[in-house]
Amino acid sequence: MSQGAVSEELSVEVRDDHVAVVEFSRPPHNYFDAELIKQIADAYDALDEDRACRAIVLCSGGKHFCAGANFAAKNPAEGGHLYEQAIRLFAARTPVVAAIQGAAIGGGLGVALSADFRVASPESRFSANFARLGIHHGFGLTVTLPLVVGPQKALELLYTGERVRGDDAHAVGLCDRLVPAERLRETAISFAAEIASSAPLAIRAIRQTMRGDLAERVRAATAHELEEQGKLFATADFAEGVAATGERREPEFSGE
């Protein structure tokens, strides 16, 4: 087993069962920016070249998996660089199982959906809350959300920003395993170890067949998503959505 902190925000542990645990931590909500996504993508790239690693568990420290980008502090001009790094998550060659504790919200849902599989608990919750903030969705959800829940359910989730609890998430396919919260990490590792016990060259070949075009599809999607987001960042509705979220109240959108 080898392990170490890549930075103050990211650690990588390669276990004897050929599973690498990649853990990020930005308490309390694990908001991301382009730099954090780059660190995760860099770790994936290194693990792709590490023969001791055959599967990855992506997880985070703290109460919530990831609350996405902090729009109260976000620089909209960062979006292009952020999505350049996000595409790299989809281009990785090693299977990924994400362990989702607490909330995977907005772009955090996008990070969760970059993985091949998701393990959650009944207390986990998922939301594509962009419309409730007054903006277009991002992080490739145009592609990834319909793949796991189907086009009609994806449209409903994007329109409403509904928060989906663990049981319902499992029922619609947002997560692949549902276990008690205290078993979340161990189940994700066990799931990844099961994948890692198969022939590694075969797994990579199968993954390339099934997901080989995903990074390019996400690249095209994020280009459009970014363009639409750029238009909506300048609206009164976006300002109201961010303010309402910060004040924990229902937004009052004006369509302007």
Annotate the secondary structure layout.
Elements: E1 2-5, E2 10-14, E3 19-24, H1 34-48, E4 55-60, H2 79-91, E5 96-100, E6 103-105, H3 107-114, E7 117-120, E8 125-127, H4 130-133, H5 141-149, H6 151-160, E9 164-165, H7 166-172, E10 177-178, H8 184-196, H9 200-211, H10 214-232, H11 236-247
**How many helices in DSSP terms?**
11
- Characterize the largest beta sheet: strand count, sense, and whether it forms a barrel: 7 strands, mixed
Termini separation? 55 Å
Q: Kindly name the structural category.
A: alpha/beta
Strand order of the largest sheet: 1-2-3-4-5-7-10
Please report the total strand number as a whole number. Answer: 10
Amount of beta strand: 15-25%
Give the helix level as a range of percent: 40-55%
What is the radius of gyration computed over CA atoms, rounded to a whole number of angstroms? 18 Å
The shape, in one word, is: globular
Structural summary, described in words:
The protein is α/β, with parallel strands linked by helices and 256 residues long. Helix content is 48%, strand content 16%. It is built from eleven helices and ten strands. The chain has a seven-stranded mixed sheet, sandwiched between helices. A three-stranded mixed sheet has the order 6-8-9. β3, α1 and β4 form a beta-alpha-beta unit. α1 runs parallel beside α2 and α2 packs antiparallel against α10. It is globular. The model has no long low-confidence stretch (mean pLDDT 95).
What's the short story on this structure?
The protein is α/β, with parallel strands linked by helices and 256 residues long. It has 11 helices and 10 strands. It has a 7-stranded mixed β-sheet, with helices on both faces.
